[in-house]
Amino acid sequence: MANKIYKYLSFDVFKMAFTEDGGVTCKFSYPKDYNDPFELFLAIDTQIETQLLAYYKDVVRDLPQFPTTCFSKSPSVPPMWAHYAQNGSGVVVEVDEESLCDVYHDINLGDVVYIEEARSDLVDLVRYAYGTRKPRHSGMLTQAVYSSAYYSKQTCWSYEQERRLVLNNHDYLESGDLMLMKIPKECITGIFTGVRATKEQKDCLQEYSNYLECDFYEAVTGKSSGEIYFLHGDGSSFYFDGVSLTKSSAPCAICKEPLVNHSADSRLCSWCSITDRHRENAADSNPFRILSEAGLLGGYIEVFNKIGS
Predict the structure, then answer these.
(1) What DSSP element (H or E) covers 189?
(2) What helix, strand, coil percent values describe the chain, rounded to 5?
(3) How much is the pTM?
(4) Cα 75 to Cα 85: distance, rounded to the nearest angstrom
(5) Secondary structure of residue 138 in the 3-state scheme
(6) Helix 135-151 with 50-61: angle, nearest 10 deg
């Protein structure tokens, strides 16, 4: 299965990014403008000799700045939906990585490596390059710093499951201060609505997916598992298995949530298994209902709260 990468966007940004000829534009930025100010300096141990640290800083200062944009390897990351997709009411665009590379040949796509401590091998390389003063060793150091600057972050960002796209040329378009690149229609394989999308937003995104001739999914928070799953436009349900989007072989017959622990004869999740008889029995067994019918519930709760405090 071809690799898929996922772009989280707000609903309004998606509408602005959508092109008339069928595609989505992505915004690029330079590493110096990343939202994590520690990225460029994370790779080096700052406790090394001051002269070596100054030499490393000089190399970083000369690091080439290439336009970069970020994707995730998963469409089901709740913090990503919250931070980048309008608190769950936005959009995720699924992009086929192989198709994108066929369109843009001179791009680099790589996984972000999440690290907590500085790389010891880079310290050795700094010391070696500084000691020899040879251009090729400085070049090796520059390449190592490039890799670290563009493809490493602190472990606190690991929930993003980030995959970065770096441009080596001028495949981007300039619009004022913005650097933009179009993802063509043939590279887009899916559109996902957020769990808090309105009916109007869902209908609008369904129309976009029809125009793009791509799959349409609606994100849903599972009642039993708390995990995000996706309802396809054809009514089937999918979940992300950590590698790819997978069709559920055992969805709940009512809510379509993928069933994790189920017997061969079970077709319902735990919540959808509740019947009217269960509800009636629960109501009869609820002491708060008895107190309420007797007009005593308010006083009981007041006394209970005083004791509890």
Answers:
(1) strand 188-193
(2) 40, 25, 35
(3) 0.85
(4) 11
(5) helix
(6) 70
